[in-house]
Amino acid sequence: MTSRWPRSLTSALAPRGDALLLLLAPLFVLSLVTHELSRHSALAAHFEGFDSDDLDEAEDLSSSDEVPLAASPPPPPATSLSRSASPESHHGPPSAPKPPPSSDLWDEDEFEGIPVAVQSADPAAAPADQTRAPSLPLPSPAPPSVRSYTTEIVCISFLICFLINYFTGKRQNEEIALAWAAKFATKDSIFDKNFSLLGTGDGKDTPLLLKEGQDVFKFYASGRRYCQSMLATMEMRSRHDLISRALDLVFRKRDVITFEVVMNEDAMDHVVLALAKRKMAKAMHKEERDLERFATLGVMPLSGRKWVADEVLVVAESKEVAGDLITEVALDQVFGDKAFEKFGKWFISLHFSDQHPGSHKKRLIFKFALPDANNMADMSRLVALVPYYIDLIGRYKLSSHAQSKTEAARAKATKEEYKEQQNLRQEVMQKKKAEKKKSLEEAEMKLTAQAIRKKEEKDRARQLKKSMPRVKMLRSH
């Protein structure tokens, strides 16, 4: 600084100290003003976007909450100039600014770079502020609502409904089965009069029904001429299953009882006959092998004879068989027009054949629908068909002409079955050969060149041995 001033001026002012102070004072004031302006411009850059309106709202909020704020800082003390030996002492760093007042609305994370206010060290001020500050009670936790337990309530409700339905459905199926047994299998009933042994055992206390599941019940009877045994299987709706019961509301299903009578080998002639409602009769003709091979769909009787109702379709091997087995008694009891209107709703199908698949080929199969437990008497006429057709088919004999035709048809069917079995055997053998050949080829691919050469030599020697003529040696005695 001394280099900037002319030597004449410094020498002129040097002897007088008051004049030197008067000259340096304006320079110090100018320096302080410039420094203060630069500091305010830096603070304004940090608070960019912060309006005075926001400050007013913050002040209103602080006044409404009655939260005491720290007193505004006192004005900075007047700057006093001190004598300094160095003329450049006014360019030193400024003193640190006072910390801003502390407030509840001050957010330290929002305003970065601003020094944190230091709390007052006055011990008397702190208790006063704490006593004046209102104590806000902590909010109590809300009680759990019902919606938070929705899943548990639904699962428990479903489990309770499932258990209730299981026991009620089980009891309903048992009531229907017991009602049927009480009507048709007890003392002086129709099966008691026609069979000598009822139930699964020889004792008097043996149960009549055999329960194989919650919806399957079986009744066994034997000891009658023309037949070996009779097995009645009741297949109920799955009332004990809640999901199946719900599906039954959409897809209606009925309780079904099936009678399967195994006839004696010498008590049944060549007979193939089936009766069912039209839609089911067509399905049976396509699905049942004996009906497809031997029987004709929609057999009509001889002219002038009363026949089955229009809803029923007859599938028989010949008109003779159909006319002889669908008797006037059967028409009056069940299959006639008037009788079928009343009892036809419980009839499903009947199927008589001496060509059934399985070990017992000669069987009679009756399939009926079961009414509820209170209306079991509605199917009395249908149940009466079982012993009636056992006796009828046991005594029935075909005419010689029909006998020859049925025997020729069965001989042809036997040959076809034999050919089918032969074809199946050949297919199985060819399949095995192909698999063996494939496995050998895979093994050859894994062999080395030397092993392949040895194998080719063995094959060549085997071929030469086969091509050589065979010589027979005779022994002389």
Automatic annotation (TrEMBL):
Q: Give the region (Disordered) as residue ranges.
A: 55-108, 122-143, 421-477
> InterPro entries of this UniProt entry?
CCDC47
Instruction: Report the locations given in the UniProt record.
Output: Membrane
Instruction: Give the GO terms filed under biological process for this record.
Output: endoplasmic reticulum calcium ion homeostasis
Q: Name one GO molecular function term.
A: calcium ion binding
Compositionally biased spans, kind Low complexity: 122-135
Q: Which UniProt keywords apply?
A: Membrane, Transmembrane, Transmembrane helix
Topologically, how does it sit relative to the membrane? Single-pass membrane protein
GO cellular component annotations, sorted alphabetically?
A: endoplasmic reticulum; membrane
Q: Where does this protein have compositionally biased stretches of type Basic residues?
A: 463-477
Q: What is its main location?
A: membrane
Compositional bias (Basic and acidic residues) spans?
421-445, 453-462
Name of the molecule in the record? Coiled-coil domain-containing protein 47
The source organism is Musa acuminata subsp. malaccensis
Instruction: Give the source lineage, highest ranks first.
Output: Eukaryota, Viridiplantae, Streptophyta, Embryophyta, Tracheophyta
